[in-house]
Request: fold
Amino acid sequence: MITVRVPAKVNVQLGVGGLRADGFHDLANVFFAVALGDEVTARHGEGVTLTCSGPDAGAVPLDDTNLAARAARLLAAHHGIEPNVALHIAKAVPVAGGMAGGSADGAAALVACDALWGLDTPAGVLHELAAELGSDVPFALLGGVALGRGRGELLEPLPVTGTFHWVFAVADGGLSTPAVFRECDRLRVEAGIGCTDVEVPTPDADPALLAALAAGDPAALAKALTNDLQPAAVSLRPALADTLLAGTEAGALAALVSGSGPTTAFLVADAESAAAVAAALLASGTCRAAHATYGPVPGAAVLAG
Reply:
């Protein structure tokens, strides 16, 4: 039995370029791994089977649409072996919440199956397989803080000092990432900007944000947080504006939609502030759960014992 712990992510910068001919957008995506995460356990089995536990377990698909199952099959195919594994996901990351929980499970399954089957796959090959599974999966392997370019899969680790504290507010239901990108394009056209990669410049990392991370300065990071998908997520789910306001009124340094949403993220000064903001968000009635956590943390890793 192999158990792998894998982190969720928040995008401290999500710069979205124009729509490319292949249907994707070029990104300047600064990933930040947080301690809120899932655990994926792999045991020997017949074929690929999936089970799941946790608050959102009922929303997790247990067929081959699940990235953990796809990861097991992809790794086995790469090595020319049969994909015989029973996978269990202990789910803590919100489902369809903009924190890459499904992608994290895919990364964890790669690491867990690799260890269970004794394959010793080189890290570079695991990264390539992760990129085949999805744009966010490679970062879940890496963890820490990294700049993602292209679709987000081309990663450059970034220097960071100290620990930053966060609160994540979980909304009812999920948001489809493709739908949020389509709404982003629609809003840009409506505003007269245009939405193609000819009309919208390729984004780049914000130097002020990179400096704040390197210095370990939460106040400076708060001023630099940006998410180009936030207007689209709020357009599709207007109630998110109430959650964002509730968190800032409770004392958060900054608030933003996490990725494509609908989970919202709040940067706070310290652990004590995180507990207070989480409690205030729950009391506000604008979310169904609130989690205080911290980061950065490492990527997918086998738990000892």
